[in-house]
Amino acid sequence: MNAISIENLRKEYDGIVAVDGISFSVEEGEIFALLGPNGAGKTTTVRILTCQIKANGGAAKIFGYDVNKDCSKIRRIIGIMPQETSLNELLTAEQNILFYGMLYDLPVKEAKKRGEELLEAMGLFHRKDELVKNFSGGMKQRLSLIIALLHKPKILFLDEPTTGLDPQARRHIWDFIKEINNEGTTIFLTTHYMEEADYLCDRVAIMDNGKIIALDTPAKLKSMMEREKILRIEMDYDEGVIEAIKNVDGVKQISDEDGIIKIIVEDRKGLLLDIIRNISDRNIKSIATVEPTLEDVFITLTGKRLRD
Amino acid sequence: MKKAFVISWRRLAEIWHQKKLLAFLILYPLIFMIIFGSVFGGENYTISFKMAVVAESSDDMASLLISIFQEYEGIDVAVKKLGNESMEEMAKELIENEDFLAVLFIPKNFSQVIFSTAKITVFYDESADINTRSIAIGTIGGIIDAFSQKIAEKKIEMAKEYGNLTEEEIKYMESIARPINLSLVGYSPVKKELKYIDFLVPGLVSMTIMWTGVTGVASSLVEDRVRGVRQRILSSPVSRISVIAGETLGYLIITGIQIVILLLVAALAFKITIAGEIWLLAAVIIAGMLCMIGIGLVISTIAKTAEEASQLGMLINFPMMFLSGIFFPITQGWMYYVSRFFPLTYINEAMREVILRGGEFGDIAVPFFISLTFAILIFIIGAALLARREEE
Fold first, then answer.
1. Using CA atoms, how far apart are residues B291 and B386, in angstroms rounded to an integer?
2. Domains and CATH numbers, chain A
3. Least C-beta-crowded within 10 Å: which of A88, A153, A194, B99?
4. 131-160 of A, contacting B, C-beta below 8 A
């Protein structure tokens, strides 16, 4: 049985289309990511799937339960880690766990025991009696994840689980997500970090403007770019140089960040020479060809970058 | 419904962790009570004033009258001597420069009053506050009336003893001295003498219900929504009804604790007692809390931030505080008609009836059902708005 199956799902807010007829399915046991920039419709999709809002059209099922009819059943088998940490800041970590545990019908003793195990696993046990408002961002995310797992959900929805975290805290959460997945929980996450999707996921759906524009394994998505090459040039440049390179025959996309220009080009003989001819009078520090990332895939597909 | 208790437990635990808020919630009605109570709530509701007595003679009768004034509680008597100036000049001087509210002149040969008549003149400060002025004039007039009454009785006694008069003649004299016997019988529907503090305490209970109910509920519910806590709670297997019931119960408990402390302090510090049945008072208070929590609920669906919610709450609370009879009774004029629109007016009426007059259910049925109806309506509106808001 599919963990999630979505068909032609639509959601509008005051005439603005947030989710524009998407269809896909997620298998049980998968880690599946919805990758896209802010405003792509990822969170709206999650909120429909988790019974927080109603879709305007189409169908969605979670383990066979219809999101329009079986919400009370769905709520019991899903765990949600929302985008905002949405914890009770004025309760202690343990009180938060007991609160949500009781809302999920766990007996107090069991909620406490399960909470302590998870706190231990997440390295938060020694701070369980502190008020959450004194926690760092990373600690809040971890506690939020613990709460999402209390009732042993069959599927876990993570809405931007590592946004705003430092690399170390992010890695901590990733490893934990992999561990949960190894224990059999299906994971559905949204992210605008391509590294996150690349590192964690079995399959990635790229979403933009409410539509799914590509869906495959990270490796296959990257191999879509086999016929293209990516040049990474470190140099002094200005707008004029970028314009000049753009006009070279065979250049598909160009982007720049922190003194580095990335150019996606077709595989054509003499192209590199044509580019170099345009920049030969500049101070070039290095030129290299690099492996494509999911970000490059996104740029190729949409012409824009993930994080803007 | 078990989950409603979980929701209220969380609300109470959150408040418990905010010690400053907790102290504020308990202290602020007490501060109001202590300030208003000590300014207006003294043992007797009397007004004291300064009065000068200018005696042109120092005979027995004059000193007797002066001593009556001096013994009267609330009158600060200063005895003056008349100089070369006229009475008017002297009165003007004393009222304008020495701040006397009244100046009383006892004429020369005042003792002659036993055999003939005497004229006492009182000048008073017309610019003084109307309440003080009328109480002062009334008191002075009353004392002089009683004094002349006593003299009249004395004269009749003397006439009886030495006058060799017939029964009819004595009766006639008595009728001249006192044509009407005024018999004053005090009757109060209140079980004890009413003081301002008695009036104030039920009002302060309303005020507490109002502030915690309206601004407390509105801002914390908005806070939950802004932080995503509301959405997270609703994504668990809990019904919206349980959430609303749980929040309501939580605030009923908080306000209940505030009110119990307020009434205990009122009983200990100001000897306020509850004349009526406690359960009836509790029913009125709960109806009031439901009205106010309902208003808070509605505001929470309109406001975008917690700050906006508490400002909107104040916008409603301030007019309601002054126009529903918390600090002073509103019985006439445009304010009366405005007050009829505030649910708190009916809560105040019902509560005073129970606390002060020992009213029974029949006495408060009308205001009680008006507030209960308001509570039900506002909750229906609030729940509907909340459902719409969460769809966004």
1. 16
2. 2-217 (3.40.50.300), 226-291 (3.30.70.100)
3. B99
4. 131
| Average pLDDT of chain A, as a whole number | 88
pLDDT in tens, B138-166: 888 888 888 888 888 888 888 888 877 88
pLDDT at A76: 92
Which pLDDT belongs to residue B212? 92
Domain locations in chain B as residue ranges: 2-42+195-390, 49-177
A97, A149 contact by CB (below 8 A)? no
- Given B6, B13, B390, which is nearest A103 (Cβ)? B6
Q: Give, to the nearest 10 degrees, the angle between helix B196-210 and helix B278-302.
A: 40
Strand order in the sheet with B75-80: B75-80, B49-55, B102-106, B121-124
- Please check whether the domain covering B49-177 is classified as CATH 3.40.1710.10: yes
Burial of A229-264, coded b for 16+ CB within 10 Å and e otherwise, reads: bbbebebebeeebeeebeebebbebbbbeeeebbbb
| CB proximity A88 to B under 8 Å | yes
Q: Chain A residues with CB inside 8 Å of B10's CB?
A: 88, 91, 95, 99
DSSP of A181-202: HHTT-EEEEEES-HHHHHHH-S
Q: Is the pTM of this model over 0.90?
A: no
Confidence of residue B218 (pLDDT cuts 50, 70, 90): very high
Substitution target from A12, A87, A88 for chain B, most B beta carbons within 10 A = A88
B235/A89 CB distance under 8 A: no
- Cβ separation of A103 and B238 shorter than 8 Å? yes
| Residues 211-250, chain B, touching A (beta carbon < 8 A) | 227-229, 231-238
Q: Which two tokens stand for residue A236?
A: 């002094």
